[in-house]
Amino acid sequence: MEVEQEIAVAAAAHDYSVWGLLMQADPVVKGVILLLVLASVACWAIIFEKIVRVNWLKGGIRRLAKTRSSADKGGFPRKVLEAGEAELQADFDDTPIERRYRVETALRHALKTQIQKVEVGLPFLATVGSAAPFVGLFGTVWGIVNSFTAIATQKDTSLAVVAPGIAEALIVTAIGLAAAIPAVVAYNQISVALGRAFAKGNDAIIEIARDLTEDETEATPQSRRARGDNVEPLRAGKPS
Fold this sequence. Notes:
Number of helices: 8
Largest sheet: none
Subcellular location: Cell membrane; Membrane
Number of strands: 0
Helix content: over 70%
Strand content: under 5%
Shape: rod-shaped
Keywords: Cell membrane, Membrane, Protein transport, Transmembrane, Transmembrane helix, Transport
Structural class: mainly alpha
Mean pLDDT: 77
Distance between the termini: 125 Å
Membrane topology: Multi-pass membrane protein
Low-confidence stretches: 6-12, 220-227, 230-240
Region (Disordered): 214-240
Pfam family, one: MotA_ExbB
Protein backbone atom coordinates (compact mmCIF):
# COMPACT_ATOMS: atom_id res chain seq x y z
CA MET A 1 0.00 0.00 0.00
CA GLU A 2 2.80 2.38 0.90
CA VAL A 3 4.59 1.58 -2.35
CA GLU A 4 1.46 2.42 -4.35
CA GLN A 5 1.13 5.71 -2.49
CA GLU A 6 4.77 6.57 -3.24
CA ILE A 7 4.22 5.84 -6.91
CA ALA A 8 1.10 7.98 -6.94
CA VAL A 9 2.98 10.83 -5.30
CA ALA A 10 5.85 10.48 -7.79
CA ALA A 11 3.41 10.54 -10.70
CA ALA A 12 1.67 13.61 -9.34
CA ALA A 13 5.02 15.35 -8.91
CA HIS A 14 5.79 15.06 -12.61
CA ASP A 15 4.49 17.58 -15.15
CA TYR A 16 3.91 15.56 -18.31
CA SER A 17 3.49 18.55 -20.60
CA VAL A 18 6.28 19.09 -23.12
CA TRP A 19 7.57 22.14 -21.27
CA GLY A 20 7.34 20.37 -17.93
CA LEU A 21 9.31 17.38 -19.22
CA LEU A 22 11.96 19.70 -20.63
CA MET A 23 12.33 21.49 -17.31
CA GLN A 24 12.65 18.17 -15.46
CA ALA A 25 15.07 16.66 -17.97
CA ASP A 26 18.58 15.54 -17.16
CA PRO A 27 21.25 18.27 -17.56
CA VAL A 28 22.84 16.36 -20.44
CA VAL A 29 19.49 16.11 -22.21
CA LYS A 30 18.91 19.83 -21.63
CA GLY A 31 22.30 20.56 -23.16
CA VAL A 32 21.49 18.48 -26.23
CA ILE A 33 18.13 20.22 -26.63
CA LEU A 34 19.72 23.66 -26.29
CA LEU A 35 22.33 22.77 -28.92
CA LEU A 36 19.67 21.56 -31.35
CA VAL A 37 17.46 24.62 -30.79
CA LEU A 38 20.37 27.00 -31.41
CA ALA A 39 21.32 25.07 -34.56
CA SER A 40 17.72 25.22 -35.78
CA VAL A 41 17.49 28.99 -35.19
CA ALA A 42 20.77 29.52 -37.06
CA CYS A 43 19.51 27.35 -39.94
CA TRP A 44 16.30 29.35 -40.30
CA ALA A 45 18.26 32.60 -40.28
CA ILE A 46 20.50 31.26 -43.06
CA ILE A 47 17.50 29.96 -45.01
CA PHE A 48 15.72 33.32 -45.06
CA GLU A 49 18.95 35.12 -45.94
CA LYS A 50 19.63 32.70 -48.81
CA ILE A 51 16.11 33.13 -50.19
CA VAL A 52 16.75 36.86 -50.46
CA ARG A 53 20.24 36.42 -51.92
CA VAL A 54 19.16 33.81 -54.49
CA ASN A 55 16.37 36.08 -55.73
CA TRP A 56 18.90 38.92 -55.94
CA LEU A 57 21.24 36.67 -57.93
CA LYS A 58 18.50 35.61 -60.35
CA GLY A 59 17.55 39.23 -60.96
CA GLY A 60 21.17 40.14 -61.60
CA ILE A 61 21.58 37.34 -64.13
CA ARG A 62 18.43 38.47 -65.94
CA ARG A 63 19.88 41.99 -66.15
CA LEU A 64 23.21 40.56 -67.26
CA ALA A 65 21.56 38.78 -70.18
CA LYS A 66 19.93 42.01 -71.40
CA THR A 67 23.02 44.19 -71.68
CA ARG A 68 26.41 44.13 -73.33
CA SER A 69 27.98 47.17 -71.64
CA SER A 70 29.09 47.55 -68.04
CA ALA A 71 28.08 51.22 -68.16
CA ASP A 72 24.42 50.20 -68.44
CA LYS A 73 24.22 48.24 -65.21
CA GLY A 74 25.13 48.38 -61.55
CA GLY A 75 25.76 45.76 -58.91
CA PHE A 76 27.26 42.43 -59.75
CA PRO A 77 26.28 42.48 -63.49
CA ARG A 78 28.53 45.50 -63.82
CA LYS A 79 31.39 43.67 -62.07
CA VAL A 80 31.01 40.66 -64.35
CA LEU A 81 30.96 42.76 -67.52
CA GLU A 82 33.89 44.87 -66.36
CA ALA A 83 35.93 41.69 -65.90
CA GLY A 84 35.23 40.68 -69.50
CA GLU A 85 35.95 44.14 -70.87
CA ALA A 86 39.22 44.33 -68.93
CA GLU A 87 40.31 40.98 -70.33
CA LEU A 88 39.38 42.14 -73.82
CA GLN A 89 41.67 45.15 -73.50
CA ALA A 90 44.61 43.04 -72.30
CA ASP A 91 47.59 43.14 -74.64
CA PHE A 92 47.84 39.60 -76.01
CA ASP A 93 48.89 38.53 -79.48
CA ASP A 94 46.19 35.91 -79.97
CA THR A 95 43.59 34.85 -82.48
CA PRO A 96 39.90 35.87 -82.26
CA ILE A 97 39.01 32.40 -80.96
CA GLU A 98 41.65 32.61 -78.25
CA ARG A 99 40.49 36.12 -77.36
CA ARG A 100 36.91 34.95 -77.03
CA TYR A 101 38.02 32.09 -74.80
CA ARG A 102 39.92 34.51 -72.55
CA VAL A 103 36.91 36.81 -72.28
CA GLU A 104 34.56 33.90 -71.53
CA THR A 105 36.93 32.65 -68.83
CA ALA A 106 37.13 36.07 -67.20
CA LEU A 107 33.35 36.52 -67.30
CA ARG A 108 32.73 33.04 -65.93
CA HIS A 109 35.25 33.52 -63.13
CA ALA A 110 33.57 36.80 -62.13
CA LEU A 111 30.15 35.12 -62.13
CA LYS A 112 31.44 32.23 -60.00
CA THR A 113 32.83 34.74 -57.52
CA GLN A 114 29.37 36.26 -57.10
CA ILE A 115 27.73 32.83 -56.75
CA GLN A 116 30.29 31.77 -54.15
CA LYS A 117 29.27 34.77 -52.04
CA VAL A 118 25.71 33.45 -52.05
CA GLU A 119 26.90 29.94 -51.16
CA VAL A 120 28.35 31.12 -47.83
CA GLY A 121 26.43 29.33 -45.06
CA LEU A 122 25.30 26.35 -47.13
CA PRO A 123 27.89 24.00 -45.56
CA PHE A 124 26.35 24.79 -42.16
CA LEU A 125 22.93 23.70 -43.45
CA ALA A 126 24.45 20.48 -44.76
CA THR A 127 26.21 19.85 -41.44
CA VAL A 128 23.07 20.39 -39.37
CA GLY A 129 21.01 18.31 -41.77
CA SER A 130 23.35 15.34 -41.44
CA ALA A 131 24.40 15.68 -37.78
CA ALA A 132 21.22 16.83 -35.99
CA PRO A 133 19.45 13.43 -36.13
CA PHE A 134 22.50 11.77 -34.56
CA VAL A 135 22.76 14.44 -31.87
CA GLY A 136 19.07 13.85 -31.17
CA LEU A 137 19.73 10.12 -31.09
CA PHE A 138 22.42 10.69 -28.46
CA GLY A 139 19.87 12.53 -26.31
CA THR A 140 17.39 9.73 -26.91
CA VAL A 141 19.80 7.06 -25.75
CA TRP A 142 20.70 9.14 -22.72
CA GLY A 143 17.03 9.52 -21.78
CA ILE A 144 16.40 5.79 -22.12
CA VAL A 145 19.43 5.06 -19.94
CA ASN A 146 17.96 7.39 -17.31
CA SER A 147 14.69 5.44 -17.49
CA PHE A 148 16.43 2.13 -16.85
CA THR A 149 18.43 3.73 -14.05
CA ALA A 150 15.19 4.91 -12.44
CA ILE A 151 13.75 1.39 -12.73
CA ALA A 152 16.82 -0.11 -11.08
CA THR A 153 16.88 2.49 -8.33
CA GLN A 154 13.18 2.34 -7.43
CA LYS A 155 12.80 -1.34 -8.32
CA ASP A 156 9.57 -0.56 -10.07
CA THR A 157 8.54 -0.82 -13.71
CA SER A 158 5.35 1.23 -13.54
CA LEU A 159 4.57 3.89 -16.10
CA ALA A 160 5.12 6.64 -13.53
CA VAL A 161 8.76 5.62 -13.25
CA VAL A 162 9.47 4.86 -16.90
CA ALA A 163 7.43 7.55 -18.65
CA PRO A 164 9.48 10.67 -17.81
CA GLY A 165 12.74 9.33 -19.22
CA ILE A 166 11.08 7.85 -22.31
CA ALA A 167 9.19 11.09 -22.94
CA GLU A 168 12.42 13.09 -22.68
CA ALA A 169 14.07 10.74 -25.14
CA LEU A 170 11.26 11.07 -27.68
CA ILE A 171 11.20 14.86 -27.36
CA VAL A 172 14.92 15.05 -28.11
CA THR A 173 14.40 12.83 -31.16
CA ALA A 174 11.63 15.13 -32.41
CA ILE A 175 13.75 18.25 -31.89
CA GLY A 176 16.65 16.67 -33.77
CA LEU A 177 14.41 15.87 -36.73
CA ALA A 178 12.84 19.34 -36.58
CA ALA A 179 16.31 20.85 -36.91
CA ALA A 180 17.52 18.47 -39.62
CA ILE A 181 14.57 18.28 -42.03
CA PRO A 182 14.32 22.01 -42.91
CA ALA A 183 18.11 22.21 -43.21
CA VAL A 184 18.27 19.32 -45.69
CA VAL A 185 15.33 20.56 -47.77
CA ALA A 186 16.67 24.12 -47.87
CA TYR A 187 20.19 22.97 -48.77
CA ASN A 188 18.94 20.90 -51.69
CA GLN A 189 16.58 23.59 -53.00
CA ILE A 190 19.14 26.38 -52.73
CA SER A 191 21.85 24.26 -54.36
CA VAL A 192 19.53 23.48 -57.28
CA ALA A 193 18.58 27.15 -57.61
CA LEU A 194 22.23 28.21 -57.67
CA GLY A 195 23.03 25.55 -60.26
CA ARG A 196 20.24 26.76 -62.52
CA ALA A 197 21.30 30.38 -62.01
CA PHE A 198 24.86 29.54 -63.02
CA ALA A 199 23.62 27.69 -66.11
CA LYS A 200 21.58 30.73 -67.20
CA GLY A 201 24.47 33.02 -66.41
CA ASN A 202 26.82 30.83 -68.43
CA ASP A 203 24.50 31.05 -71.45
CA ALA A 204 24.50 34.84 -71.11
CA ILE A 205 28.29 34.86 -70.79
CA ILE A 206 28.72 32.96 -74.05
CA GLU A 207 26.58 35.53 -75.86
CA ILE A 208 28.35 38.46 -74.20
CA ALA A 209 31.81 37.11 -75.03
CA ARG A 210 30.77 36.58 -78.64
CA ASP A 211 29.39 40.10 -78.95
CA LEU A 212 32.40 41.70 -77.28
CA THR A 213 34.93 39.88 -79.43
CA GLU A 214 32.94 40.48 -82.62
CA ASP A 215 32.82 44.18 -81.83
CA GLU A 216 36.57 44.10 -81.28
CA THR A 217 37.17 42.28 -84.56
CA GLU A 218 34.94 44.66 -86.51
CA ALA A 219 36.44 47.79 -84.94
CA THR A 220 37.87 50.33 -87.38
CA PRO A 221 41.62 50.91 -87.56
CA GLN A 222 41.13 54.41 -86.11
CA SER A 223 39.27 53.13 -83.04
CA ARG A 224 41.83 50.38 -82.56
CA ARG A 225 44.66 52.94 -82.70
CA ALA A 226 42.82 54.98 -80.07
CA ARG A 227 42.97 51.93 -77.79
CA GLY A 228 46.64 51.43 -78.58
CA ASP A 229 46.30 48.34 -80.80
CA ASN A 230 48.90 47.72 -83.45
CA VAL A 231 47.26 48.22 -86.83
CA GLU A 232 49.14 47.63 -90.07
CA PRO A 233 47.77 49.98 -92.78
CA LEU A 234 46.56 48.33 -95.96
CA ARG A 235 48.54 49.04 -99.13
CA ALA A 236 47.14 48.95 -102.62
CA GLY A 237 48.55 46.60 -105.13
CA LYS A 238 49.45 42.99 -105.22
CA PRO A 239 51.92 41.56 -102.75
CA SER A 240 55.37 40.99 -104.15
